[in-house]
Design a protein that fits this description.
By secondary structure, this protein is α/β, with parallel strands linked by helices. 28% of the residues lie in helices and 17% in strands.
Length: 380
Amino acid sequence: MVPRAPSFSPWFSALAAALLASSFAVPCPAQSTAGRVLLVVNDNSSLSRSIADYYARRRNIPAKNICHLKAPTVEEIPRGEFDRQIARPLADFLRKAGLEETIYYIVTTAGVPLKIAGTGELTGNAASVDSELTLLYSDLHSAKPHSIDGVIPNPFFGRRDRPFSHPEFPIYLVTRLAAYDFDGVKGIIDRALAAVNRGKFILDLSDPDDRQGNDWLRDAAIQLPKDRVVLEDTTQPIWDQTDVIGYASWGSNDANHHRRFPGFHWLPGGIVTEYVSSDGRTFAKPPDKWIPSRAWNTPWAWFAGAPQSLLADYLLEGATGGSGHVYEPYLIMTPRPDLLLPAYYSGRNLAESFYLAIRSLSWQNIVVGDPLCSLGSPPH
């Protein structure tokens, strides 16, 4: 099997150029400044403190933009502990510092709890800590907090023609600096600062069927420069690619996906997104011989409660950022690659690119990486 670049008619190529020029190339100078970032540290975690110290120095985050919490160091916490030890202290910090409007990006660090236990299904109240924190802005400006049952529509979703700003978009864009260990996070930060707009976007369909997730991957291919796209639309996964700047696939939900690592050489700034229900469930490192799968009937082969692939493995291999899910998100709420990848290619930063592509908040999504990471303008 030889991966191939997509074949487009001249009409499609013209459409792609027009879409990129008119829909994604939005001037946004203010969004890339360190003064827009609120850095969240859990003082009870030595890992969180080390990450925060390194990121603050590398990005010159002002001291007044660093919020110190004293929260549990476990990955999953009850809703009451989230409210008392994370959401409420963060809200108080923003108010007292007068930063409610100034801050656009909240950066949590490994050691800050990852997910909130609760009920499942579409009407449930289990969620990621980070997705709940996106709504802290609207909660600060409302007489009562948002509903925790089910999803809240993301007002920034699909708004590729608009720069992110307050109060037009009454949310914070929350990303997390996390990996298997401190060296892994340090690598993410360093690679973000070295990002350059070159390399290939790898789009891997699980099969040639016209199901929704595959359609989004095909649409992403149409909107990106065809000489920078590798579109795999057979039943075979794509492995061992060089100079990867973006990757979107079905991950372990692809029946033929039998490797833990894709064997990519990642460029600085490379990002990943998958249609996988639990790829952000943990940042604990699996045994070296563990292989992700779809084997839900063999719990002895699972890791951290599921058999599915893990976002942190891509970060270990060399990706600079990515998205994941702490619990079942349903396909419609996973990031849309046809919104994410063209936005990132056009020069939007990592945080804006991912949140443009995420339909709902108060949900299961996490975004990992430096929010300010940007490839810069496309080469001419």
